[in-house]
Amino acid sequence: MISLNELKVLRDKSRAEISIREKGYLAGSNMDFYRSHVLVCAGTGCTSSESLEVRNGLKEELIRLNIDKEVKVVETGCFGFCSLGPIIVVYPEGTFYCLITPEDVKEIAEEHLLKGHIVSRLLYSEPGTDKKVSDFESIEFFNHQKRVALRNCGVINPEKVEEYIAHDGYFALAKVLEEMTQEQLIEELKKSGLRGRGGGGFPAGLKWQFAHKTPGDIKYVVCNADEGDPGAFMDRSVLEGDPHSIIEAMAIAGYAIGSEQGYIYIRAEYPIAVHRLEIAIEQAREFGLLGQNIFGTGFNFDLDIRLGAGAFVCGEETALLTSIEGHRGEPRPRPPFPAVEGLWRKPTLLNNVETYANIPAIILKGADWFASIGTEKSKGTKVFALAGKINNIGLIEVPMGTPLRTIIYDIGGGIPNGKKFKAAQTGGPSGGCIPAHLIDTEIDYDNLIALGSMMGSGGLIVMDETDCMVDIAKFFLEFTQEESCGKCPPCRIGTKRMLEILEKITKGRGTPDDISQLETLARTVKSSSLCGLGQTAPNPVLSTLKYFRDEYEAHINEKRCPAGVCKELLNFSIIADKCKGCSVCAKVCPVGAISGVVKEPYVINSETCIKCGACMEKCKFGAIVKE
Amino acid sequence: MSCNCQCSTEKKNDPRFQELDGIIKKYKNQAGSLIPVLHKAQGVFGYLPEEVQSYIAKGLKLPLSEVYGVVSFYSLFTTVPRGKYVFNVCLGTACYVQGSGRIMDNLKKELGLDIGETTADGLFTLEGCRCVGACGLAPVLTVNEKVHGRLKEDDVPRLISLYRLKEEQGSK
User: Fold this and answer.
1) Strand partners of residue A284
2) Which residues contact A304 (CB under 8 A, 6 or more apart)?
3) Is B146:B135 a contact under the CB 8 Å cutoff?
4) Residue B79 in contact with residue B51, Cβ under 8 Å?
5) Going edge to edge, which strands form the sheet with B124-129?
6) Do A328 and B149 touch (CB under 8 A)?
7) Rounded distance, CA A148 to CA A155, Å?
8) CA distance B6 to chain A (A)
9) Hey, is the C-beta of A198 within 8 angstroms of any chain B C-beta?
């Protein structure tokens, strides 16, 4: 068991060791430690592009150059700039290198780490400019962000509890145990205005209060890390980059409601996050930060991990609890809410990863500080996974109320290939889209609901003019239809019928009454489904109908897909003036639908054409068009 | 269900069932242990055939119907053996808008498989998944643990040949 004093000593010692990564650090000021730290991103995004090979290569080079006692290689969590992976940052300079390949490692080691010359060809340059940026804090992508939940990601080594402690880790837990009553703690949380980051946005303090007030000798604290929205990876990055913040927050929650046991329900598809969590829980136990009599205060708390098994519906809280109990992850009606009757019918407090990640910061910096960030009804920051048709794909954290325009253009760097911004989709399969003309919308819970979308967990997918919104609605319906657990008929059958109508429309067989049928079905499924999955499943359809009704109408009435996506509605043809008669198209056509005489314009027989687009890709003269 | 053939003695001598015994023993007295046991069992056997399910049902004192109910509910559990190389195309939104649907179509054509099927030689299985979380590399697919990103449609045949070649070299 560690005492608060011992924790302070450990913090100061660890802080000195990693102070080299702080701003204003004087090079060479502390000769006891390494003269340089090289932080290598070891999150899922970067490891997918070989960051571990880069790390291994760096370590070998340091040994070869005999500077492995001077330069330290540190694995860290996500920097957020995933499209530039693998990323490494060299301290004390704070030099940001991106798109590193294992072949670049030798040059970085010899030039930068040995001789101190920055390798400028590996630096980042802002989209549309050639100017190289060396210091990563001056990169536009990072400039507009404010990191609260992600405060330690890309800063510390997530596999070392000492580095978390160096950043005041576990001091929030110490503070609540030593200085605050349960009621004071809950009041503080209510005052902060923190709302659940899992999607619904329910005030966290109220939820804690319900679980606190429900009598019961056994209670549970659960973390929902079953992040299932396609294109969303906020929670994964927190768990990979800063697992201790979740452990600490859950222990704080345990104290608040009077629980001694917590469960983290995490997707089995996140092996790195699971691994880091296991390490973190083990280290916390070793230091007595989990277990019996924490800080000698008599408070006991421990944690276990439960793996999901690939069922999206388990992100819904009642289904998640049923799954932890070992059953089919089917939801049940609420009330009773989990705070009254949850896991094994005991009072249970359930929050998602990002909600927990905010807790230690709120305790240490105070509710007023937190409430000073954001909008009137949405406090603090929000993490978004920015993906799709955008230059800077990655993970960002911005104050609530940040305009969508800032996210798309300033942080996201705009739309690639000179295409036009069409819509941003938020909230995944439960959400909707924000069309281009509403780009100045300030993103918070209430504004998104008013637009017919929702915050969701934070996936933000950008679409350009070549994306068909009917097709996107169909994509999400396919998803919810497949993931519907089948327990209640409105969701099981309703989503199926809606999907059938959308398939009909995208195949050119739509009829004028399809739209009104879709709307009627959507209302029924929304109002009568058992759980959140079904209640929100029609949102992508309703939202695209609201803003892109003309696209539906073009599909139905004119049998035309304006974005050129829906295959059955496409027509490929050759512009005779541009065709040089080279015959390449005829050769690549897999069904022999193109014919002609060499050096004369060719023709496509639309009867046999299967609309694969191979000819268009191969034509060097841009003579083939689809419409 | 339990049968009267010699398979019970076969099981006793099968190291995989011995390992399963250990897993069941470890989790037996924990609440909600079925899903963790199934995860581990699939790790040992590669899949969850009926005999493994009934073995677990007996070990955890649960009705086989409940075990089967759980296995069939969760998409990560499989009752059929899978290929040596599992091609898993990400069908998450970010990959979808970058054309992963066409990558999937190409794979279906090249491998002659539908989603969830395995080639007759046991080499390839085709799967679709929801977001690997490598959206920066979209569109992506994974082959077992390895992530292949920034794919184009015509990368598909090359990728399949790569793994065929790997297999030939490995068997030499």
Assistant:
1) none
2) A261, A262, A263, A264
3) no
4) no
5) B124-129, B85-90, B141-143, B146-148
6) no
7) 13
8) 31
9) no
Inspect the interface and report whether the beta carbons of B131 and A268 lie closer than 8 Å.
no
Query: DSSP letter at A109?
Result: I
For residue range B62-101, what is the model confidence (pLDDT) as tens digits?
A: 999 999 999 999 999 999 999 999 999 998 888 888 889 9
Does the beta carbon of A425 lie under 8 angstroms from any beta carbon of chain B? yes
Strand A220-225 relative to strand A261-266: parallel, antiparallel, unpaired? parallel
Q: Of A290, A315, A300, which Cα lies nearest the Cα of A235?
A: A315
Pairwise CA distance, residues A224 & B131, whole Å: 18
Angle at A351 between CA A526 and CA A187, to 5 degrees: 115
List the domains of chain A with CATH numbers.
Answer: 34-142 (3.40.30.10), 161-371 (3.40.50.11540), 381-464 (3.10.20.600), 469-557 (1.20.1440.230), 571-626 (3.30.70.20)
> Using an 8 Å Cβ cutoff, are A337 and A208 in contact?
no
Helix, strand, or coil here: A97?
Answer: strand
Q: Which regions in chain A score pLDDT beneath 70?
A: 27-31
* A450 CA: distance to closest CA in chain B (Å): 23
pLDDT at B8: 63
- How far apart CA B87 and CA B93 sit, in angstroms, is 18
Nearest residue in A to B95, CA atom:
A388
Place of tokens 């023993």: B25
Cβ contact A322:A329 at 8 Å: yes
pTM value? 0.93
How distant is the alpha carbon of residue B44 from its chain centre? 12
- CA–CA distance, A292 with A286 (Å, rounded to integer): 11
DSSP state for residue A376 in the 8-state scheme: S
CATH of domain B85-171: 3.40.30.10
Query: Residue A2: helix, strand or coil by DSSP?
Result: coil
Residues in chain B: 172
Chain A's closest residue to B91, CA to CA, is A230
How long a stretch of residues is chain A? 627
Degrees (nearest 5) of the Cα angle A23, A54, A236? 70
Element (H, E) at A502: helix A489-506
Q: Which residue has the tokens 């793994």?
A: B163
Q: Is A382 helix (H, G, I), strand (E, B) or coil?
A: strand
